[in-house]
Amino acid sequence: MSAGKTRDTVLELSDISVRFPSGSDWLGRPTSHVHALNGVDLDVQRGETLGIVGESGCGKSTLAQVLLGLLQPSEGLVSGAAASDESALQIVFQDPQSSLNSRMRVWRVITEPVFARQRKSTMELRRLAVELAAKVGLREETLDRYPHEFSGGQRQRIAIARALSSDPDVIVLDEPTSALDISVQAQILNLLDELQRERSLTYIFISHDISVISHMCRRVAVMYLGQIVEIGDAASLLAHPRHPYTQLLLGSVPKLEEDGLGELIEETELPSNRRLPSGCFFFDRCSFATEACRQPQQLIDGVRCCRAEELALTAAG
Amino acid sequence: MRKTVLDIDNLSLEFPVYKGTVSAVNRVSLHVQEGEIVGIVGESGSAKSVTAMTAMRLLPSESFRIRSGRITLLGQDMLALSEQKLASMRGRDVAMIFQEPLTALNPTKKVGAQMLGVIRLHTKLSEREARLHAIKLLTDMRINDAEEILERYPFELSGGMRQRILIGLAFACSPKLLIADEPTTALDVTVQKQVLQLLRQKARELNTAILFISHDLAVVSQFCDRLYVMYAGSVVETGPTREVLGAPKHPYTQALIRALPESAAPGQPLRSIRGVVPNLTDMPTGCAFRERCDSAFEACSAIPPLFSLDEDNRASACWLCEKEHAA
Amino acid sequence: MAEAQSTAKRSRFDFGYFGYQLKRSPLTMVGLIMVVLVLIVVIFAPVFATHDPNAIDLRARLAPPSMAHFFGTDEVGRDIYSRILFGGRQSIAVGFFVVFLAGLTGTVLGALSGLIGGRTDTVIMRLMDVVLSVPSLALILALAAALGPSLVNAALAIAIVRIPFYVRLVRGQALIVREMAYVKAAHTFRAGRLHILRWHILPNTLSPVIVQGTLDLGSTILLASALSFIGLGAQQPTAEWGAMVATGRNYILDQWWYSGFPGFAILFTATGFNLFGDGVRDMLDPRQKAR
Questions:
Q1: pLDDT tens digits along B179-232
Q2: Do A264 and B222 touch (CB under 8 A)?
Q3: Which residues in chain B are closer than 8 Å to C17, comparing Cβ atoms?
Q4: CATH code for the domain of A207
Q5: What tens digit of pLDDT does each residue of B130-148 get?
Q6: Distance CA A237, CA A247 (A)
Q7: For residue A146, is it within any domain?
Q8: pTM
Q9: CATH code for position C67
Q10: How far apart are alpha carbons B35 and B207 in whole angstroms?
Q11: How many structural domains comprise chain A?
């Protein structure tokens, strides 16, 4: 990412690794580690929407926690303008049911980031809540209700309003529409789009849904087993995936126009993240693996595969 | 003409709740024929699961009231069947798989013991034969080390593996009908694809019909022969999958497909459906979709029946379609 | 079913809903009526009483129930009916005092334990284990004896023994709430521990504590009476149900009304609170809410 340096980087991760101890002997010493992130380099540009795709266990949620400062990485460094300013980062979670406290009135929920950090009069907080509610399309008279009285889509609007209340630069969207119906998903995605343009927000959009990512993001990173295996411009990456895993992932996404399911996938089990593979992490599932793939792979030119160029040539020829 | 496995005829069902009743299912008619894969798609509140659960009589009997309709499953009147007969039908003639495979397995027992228990409950196989049958079922699900898997506990296995085991088990007695309620929603896409492939392969092999419940249009589009689109407790459109999704007739189906992110042009906002799903305790008069529909007109204040569009099982519950069809 | 539930919306304090639940559970209704009856009678004791509870009338010693003395009289001629009305004040006050004290202390300790974790948690929980490891009745007896026989001390002793139950309850709840996404969200905007305690943990532990408290009222009243019965609670001449049963014991063969009526009062009150408590638990149980 040499070109990235000249742009306005709000957040930069360099060589982030996260290990969780798992299991312990009789002295309480960990017997093994879960390797959630294994050397992630990532930069986030001001005003962009960066998509992060991957399947369960790929480390995308751990990455979100590191970005938000909720988790200290075992190795590596988080830097950038947004990393030092505490109110610069906010998050919207997947499940609007558990991300809103059902014992708080909506106006309290929305303004929580503000009154959690400083004393403000009820009048001020309410005024802020009314303003934010209007922004996300909630009616003012609903502010005195409790979150469980709202539908899933409305609850996600509340969560978005809360994220906006401390006036952040970056919002991490962790599967923000995965729990919603299609028609509601469209409303929420449109709202996010509008808010981004209005407030020049930076989004980090985490999702397993390729179609949502491709609609929302300009740049996308594909994760597998705690590593970024491919990163680049969303349109070209999704149209012409270069890493074999990205190809498998995109090939598995069901499409509306298509009939049938294609050829049978044989191996779907992920390798354990307790004992990491020594070479390429995708080795066991890759149909293009050769001897060279037994060596650790580097992220070169946006793809972590030593055969990427070769494979692209064969595909073209 | 193929035999009809499941026939739901004009079913209406409500749940009594505090201050009123939830009209969950409204005049739903649907049928599944032998060996056919039929999808039910709909958003939350559309009653797609409730309809299937009622067909298996899985709802607690005191929680709901049937207002009208009949359910015939393999020639049996499901609303009148005795508990005993019901129990022997479930698992043998009709099997079910659910969204979360972990809850369907007992966490304290090994996979093998659970599979053998189910197999021997419904067949006269000996312990040894049942074990061989279980291994065959797992091997058919592309589980390579089947013998070893039998000795494992459910929590030691991945979600995809658990779902494959349950699908294998569902086919243990070659059922006539398999009801699959969002079986791949909790799975990753690469796993989902494999599970769907195995499910279909096995169903075709045993001539098992599948009633496949899902919210995911794309999955349904790839998996089902025929489908029902449900909205707020009613079937709004039905027909062969390709035709319904390729050329939807009902404004709701059209709007749903337009709202998908892949339907939007790059850089353009998505075309969401305005408004919200109607409150089922207080349904509007007439068509349930009327208040969100762009092409609603006077006739829509009366409830539209399911108009048959052609001989090919194609039908749509919209006055507009009736008008067009007549013209 | 989940689909149907989401449409049934209601506010948290909906007495209409409360009434709806009551109607579906006749036993809760019976419990509620019993509790309300006891409370009314005890609060308005001076209105309902026919005699001064401590007025001695040696001419009418051990008189059987009659129009003059509804429940008869004791060995110094005091009116048992009036003594039960006033005695109830003691018993029920003890019940509420114990539940309040144990509930409050338990909630504070449990919330701290669950929220802070680590060493604080270990110290608090081991302390509670110590209390729990001794049979509760024996501990109450020892404490009450050590503090000296009086109703307040008896109440204190019971409260101390009840604290661990609330600590465990609240700690468990705090551990659940701590993992909820809304608390993770609160961490992202750097909310302090006090904020999380005040806005997230305490509001969400309130209803289980109330349920536990309602259920405890009945057994506490029973325990306080038992302590008075063996002389470690209320002292003469204070009217108290347990103490009345105890002195009445000497006359049980000939003057059954002496210990019979106070005994029935204890039974009635404890049963009422237990039935009501069970009902409240069912109402607040999220799994029951689905119906």
A1: 999 998 888 888 899 889 999 999 999 999 999 999 999 999 999 999 999 999
A2: no
A3: 18
A4: 3.40.50.300
A5: 999 999 999 988 888 889 9
A6: 10
A7: no
A8: 0.85
A9: 1.10.3720.10
A10: 4
A11: 1
